[in-house]
Task: structure prediction
Amino acid sequence: MTTTSGLQAPARPGPVPACERLLAGGQGDLASLLDRFPPRPVARTWAVTRQPREQLLGRLLRPPFRMDNTQSQANRKAGAAQLLAWLESLPGETWQERWAASGAEEAADWRALPARC
Result:
């Protein structure tokens, strides 16, 4: 059997989450905000996904991606070159489309996919 003193600590009012304030009504309700500020359309592709292979490889090997350890940087360069070669073998006009065609998004471990080719 458990007994209590009957005293309870008063509930602390916390900050009201923004979504609750929006849904509370008035001028700031969610529907009117969505009307005033509709979401941006989702881009199908970005300029970087259309870069030529050498330009993309150069980008991946410069800061902030560059590693200080020379051997690690050499391994990164070899791996990136292999990955891009694999992606080039897949259908699509952009790196993004080729990645989507690869099945990597659904794979448990996408790193195994290029090794199969």
